[in-house]
């Protein structure tokens, strides 16, 4: 839920982070530790070594045929090895080379499937190198003989490294990142263009009767790949004919890999993701627990389901930390097994696990599986029966509400679908709110302004006496029985003192009239942390943050303001692994996960 920032008086001070309150974990002296998952850390060196050797092998296989022309040889060679077969081996070399370059990019992400394919491709390329070395007739000291020997050595070394570090390549493929697909497309096409340019530059004049300059080589390569062709090129030698065929072949392979890289994430976004979200929504309908579950349906979540399709996890990976929002959902008797399976899958993919803002219900389960548990705050839950009968008549509420009502302010409830005209006005309010210092859209555990989503929500609009719209909130579902909450709370830069109190009093009384029993005011970060005698050292350290950094984040003011609505408090916890270094890594990931891409 959004923070609100009216113009407060001393009596009516509303903390900036009224609903959204960042959980800040002190990085302490551990921040110098390398973040897990960085490509250039000591722990990643073996992976980088495998990637580099695979890339070198791919480049050698791709470009080696361009540097080797079939030299003069005895007639017996012609009889034993037909020219067509010899040149087909060159084309296969190019194909395997492009494949290895593509696989190197996947190996950088420790993909298990890519490891298997790379081993097979390298074994095949080793066979090509050995056969070619045995077939070709060269004099001692020939540079091409040295190149063949180098190729055989790098292949053997690459295969050895893949097997030696095989346990590091455990990540299961997730075709979900379209940005990565675009990067793969770019790299494969650059490789194909480089192949064509180098090939044209290395051609002899006798091949086409032309000596190709660099600019001409680039243009002719691009013409081949754009299907414009080079009709004026007439091959005069068998090598020239093979080069044109191999150029088209390399371009076709690059195109195939590019389409594959883009198709998988696009197919996931258009078909698989909607089906997964529908299944998650069904599971939440049956087993959801609180208002936080609503944000498990945001587009930034990935999902893992149990084999029975009764349990689900909603997470996002940042810095190789799989951050799960709240608790996994599912039947109580299936959750322990599912949580263990989920953690095992994360570890298989090389991720550490974290569960953000979990309730007290499953804390013992997380401890049983060896995870660390840290209290990070408390949720404020308003009893709407009590509020409607007692709290709303408190002196502060009563006097301010009467004043604003007398002046002509009112809160209007608008049922969906929301009109385009109203959505435009609400967006103006939202944009004005976002212009405030420190305000921006956040994701993961918060909603954001989305016209299509807002169109289907119930909206409450605060109106001035002249009917000018000053602020709005949108009602969202909580999966706890009888509970409701709101998401966006946006207002103009100038609103009268006490207006947000007025909005909330009218809102809560109206929701009570609609039959709701509870209202979630959201998290008060660091509230109640480290106050118990048996609190952990980490919780006591966080408590010191609460005491000494309040002037920066107004944690106490947030707790004090929410207390005005007489809520009861439910504890919220951060679950992580890896002790203090793991807490630092998780804290960095949490700071990043809420930022929009």
Structure at a glance:
The protein is α+β, with helices and mostly antiparallel strands and 597 residues long.
Structure description:
This protein is 51% helix and 14% strand. An eleven-stranded mixed sheet has the order 1-2-3-4-11-5-10-9-8-7-6, with helices on both faces. The protein has helices at residues 45-67, 75-80, 83-107, 112-135, 143-164, 178-202, 205-208, 214-225, 238-287, 335-348, 363-368, 384-389, 395-407, 420-434, 451-455, 499-513, 537-548, 550-553, 555-563, 579-593, and strands spanning 302-305, 312-318, 321-325, 352-358, 372-383, 410-414, 458-463, 469-477, 483-491, 518-525, 568-576. α1 (45-67) packs parallel to α6 (178-202) and α3 (83-107) runs antiparallel to α6 (178-202). The chain has 20 helices and eleven strands. It is elongated, with a radius of gyration of 32 Å. 39% of the residues are buried. The model is unreliable at 3-40, 71-84, 137-141 and 543-553 (pLDDT under 50). The two termini are 19 Å apart. With 597 residues, the protein is of the alpha+beta class.
């Amino acid at each position: 839920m959004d923070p609100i920032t009216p113009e407060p008086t001393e009596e009516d001070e509303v903390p900036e982070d009224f609903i959204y309150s960042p959980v800040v974990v002190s990085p302490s002296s551990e921040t110098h530790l390398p973040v897990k998952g960085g490509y250039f850390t000591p722990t990643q060196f073996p992976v980088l070594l495998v990637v580099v050797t695979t890339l070198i092998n791919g480049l050698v296989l791709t470009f080696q045929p361009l540097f080797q022309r079939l030299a003069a040889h005895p007639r017996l060679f012609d009889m034993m090895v037909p020219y067509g077969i010899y040149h087909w081996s060159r084309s296969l070399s190019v194909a395997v080379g492009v494949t290895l370059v593509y696989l190197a990019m996947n190996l950088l992400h420790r993909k298990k499937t890519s490891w298997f394919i790379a081993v097979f491709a390298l074994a095949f390329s080793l066979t090509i190198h050995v056969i070619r070395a045995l077939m070709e007739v060269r004099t001692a000291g020939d540079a091409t003989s040295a190149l063949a020997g180098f190729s055989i050595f790098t292949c053997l070394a690459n295969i050895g490294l893949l097997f030696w570090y095989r346990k590091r390549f455990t990540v299961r493929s997730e075709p979900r990142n379209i940005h990565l697909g675009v990067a793969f497309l770019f790299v494969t096409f650059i490789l194909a263009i480089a192949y064509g340019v180098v090939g044209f530059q290395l051609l002899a004049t006798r091949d086409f009767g032309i000596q190709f300059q660099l600019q001409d080589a680039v243009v002719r390569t691009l013409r081949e790949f754009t299907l414009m062709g080079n009709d004026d090129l007439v091959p005069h030698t068998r090598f020239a004919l093979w080069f044109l065929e191999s150029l088209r072949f390399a371009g076709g392979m690059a195109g195939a890999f590019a389409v594959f890289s883009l198709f998988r994430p696009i197919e996931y976004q258009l078909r698989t993701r909607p089906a997964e979200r529908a299944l998650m929504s069904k599971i939440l309908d049956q087993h959801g627990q609180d208002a936080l579950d609503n944000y498990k349906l945001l587009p930034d979540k990935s999902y893992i389901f149990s084999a029975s399709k009764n349990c689900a996890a909603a997470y996002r990976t940042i810095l190789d930390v799989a951050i799960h929002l709240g608790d996994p959902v599912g039947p109580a008797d299936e959750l322990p097994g599912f949580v263990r399976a989920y953690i095992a899958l994360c570890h298989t993919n090389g991720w550490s696990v974290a569960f953000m803002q979990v309730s007290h219900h499953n804390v013992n389960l997380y401890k049983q599986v060896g995870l660390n548990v840290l209290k990070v705050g408390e949720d404020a839950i308003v009893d709407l029966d009590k509020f409607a009968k007692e709290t709303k008549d408190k002196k502060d509420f009563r006097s301010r509400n009467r004043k604003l009502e007398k002046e002509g302010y009112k809160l209007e409830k608008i049922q969906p679908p929301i009109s385009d005209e109203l959505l435009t006005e609400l967006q103006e309010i939202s944009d004005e709110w976002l212009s405030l210092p420190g305000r921006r859209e956040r994701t993961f555990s918060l909603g954001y302004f989305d016209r299509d989503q807002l169109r289907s929500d119930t909206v409450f609009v605060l109106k001035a006496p002249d009917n000018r719209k000053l602020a709005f909130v949108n009602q969202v579902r909580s999966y706890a029985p009888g509970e409701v909450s709101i998401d966006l709370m946006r207002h103009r830069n100038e609103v009268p003192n006490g207006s947000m109190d007025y909005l909330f009093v009218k809102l809560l009384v109206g929701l009570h009239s609609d039959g709701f029993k509870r209202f979630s005011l959201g998290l008060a970060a660091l509230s109640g942390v480290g106050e118990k005698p048996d609190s952990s050292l980490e919780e006591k350290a966080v408590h010191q943050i609460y005491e000494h950094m309040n002037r920066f984040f107004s944690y106490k003011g947030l707790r004090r303001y929410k207390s005005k609505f007489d809520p009861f408090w439910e504890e919220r916890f951060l679950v992580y692994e890896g002790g203090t270094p793991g807490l630092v890594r998780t804290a960095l990931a949490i700071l990043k996960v809420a930022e929009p891409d």
